[in-house]
Amino acid sequence: MTDHPDWFADGFKHVWLPYTQMQTTPPPVPVAATDGVFITLSDGRRLVDGVSSWWTACHGYNHPHIRETVAEQLGRMPHVMFGGLAHEPALTLAQRLSALLPGDLSRVFFSESGSVSVEIAMKMALQFWINNGETRRRKFIGFEYAYHGDTIGAMSVCDPEEGMHALFSGLLPEQHIVPLPRTNDEFVRFETFLGEHAAGCAAIIIEPLVQGAGGMKMHKPETLARLHQTAKRHNLLVIVDEIMTGFGRTGSLFASEQAGIAPDIVTLSKALTGGTMALAATVATNTIFDAFLSEDPEAALMHGPTYMANPLACAAAHASLDLFEREPRLDQVSSIEKHLREALEPCRDMAGVVDVRVKGAIGTVQLQDFTDHDAFKAAFVEKGVWIRPFGDIVYVMPPFIIEERELACLTGAMCEIVGDWSVRRSES
């Protein structure tokens, strides 16, 4: 680490990095600044950001409208507790989100991370039934390849085998994790399963259209619509996890719009603030909310993150929504999708490539027996792009404001590096 700045050399030995084997993984890349679609490294190199900082920076970095809005809010009130007090940025944001979401999703509970928003959604669903006198509904139905977060409850509805949480199997609540049905025969089997188990379940939980951290597995809007219909026939609540898909990533403001469904509970985070600050929201229908209204204090939802509804984060979310209203974000996503489909298609014929998948501003190349993650990351940096493979996929989820030239840098690097890997694989 001798080539790194002093702050990195001195501080790195005191941090613990996410999803990282600290003994064997190369050190992270020191960053000095961000702007637009670029990450500037401490040595002056600029990388085109291909993953939007874990899928958050939909407007790019340092957008002046978001920056100015947050600065203005900072001058008035950076934070105040949301217990017994209220403030305009949170209440107007709740109203604004309610107007954008489908159906009767009109009660917003704020938190500060996607994982926590899922925990809250699960607590809402369980207590909804308890408050209605149905105490036997204690389990959830999730799907293979699902990822919903890293906290205990959220981990329990992730795929225990394909996900990142197999080590915690003895600790986690046991839920029903089943294959996501796509064909008619699979739906028949799913219906049979629900006939046997739905009476003991509170809700199903699903990532709409794209299962993100499980490998960018995609399904059609018709599949999502049928899942919703099937769940409702069996009197199950439907939780839709829009943490990754929400705010334009799949081509509509919310992925569930494409299926024409109105979930009972929706979770939001990541791009909610345009990649600026931590904020999440769990949004429920009035039907869910009304089940918590009672003379009994214990019927209330007992949850309260310290920094929930942080005014700075709410201001950033307002500014991000302004940009969706003022600028052609969904048109930009459509253009990105067209480019990704054309530019990544040549990978399909490369040896070792399992599949090429594109949805909205998500482009994925799935590889067979892929283990060269660190080598790929280093090669991408040398090509001037930031692309971070995981599992068996190499993917891009760029900021929506990316220009054609920068987008071509990303897809060109993907095709070249995957192609080189494919040749080496064939020769070995």
Describe the secondary structure blueprint for this structure.
Blueprint: H1 6-11, E1 31-35, E2 38-41, E3 46-49, H2 52-55, H3 64-76, H4 88-100, E4 105-111, H5 114-131, E5 139-143, H6 152-156, E6 176-178, H7 184-197, E7 201-206, E8 210-211, E9 217-218, H8 221-233, E10 237-241, E11 265-268, E12 280-285, H9 286-290, H10 311-326, H11 329-344, E13 353-359, E14 362-367, H12 373-382, E15 385-386, E16 393-396, H13 404-427
Parallel strand pairs: 3-15, 5-6, 5-7, 7-10, 10-11
Antiparallel strand pairs: 1-2, 2-3, 4-12, 8-9, 11-12, 13-14, 14-16
Helix pairs in contact: 3-10, 4-10, 11-13
Structure commentary:
This protein has 428 residues and is α/β, with parallel strands linked by helices. It folds into two domains: 157 residues, Aspartate Aminotransferase, domain 1, CATH 3.90.1150.10; 263 residues, 3-Layer(aba) Sandwich (Aspartate Aminotransferase, domain 2). It has 13 helices and 16 strands. Helix 11 runs parallel beside helix 13. It is globular. The model has no long low-confidence stretch (mean pLDDT 96).
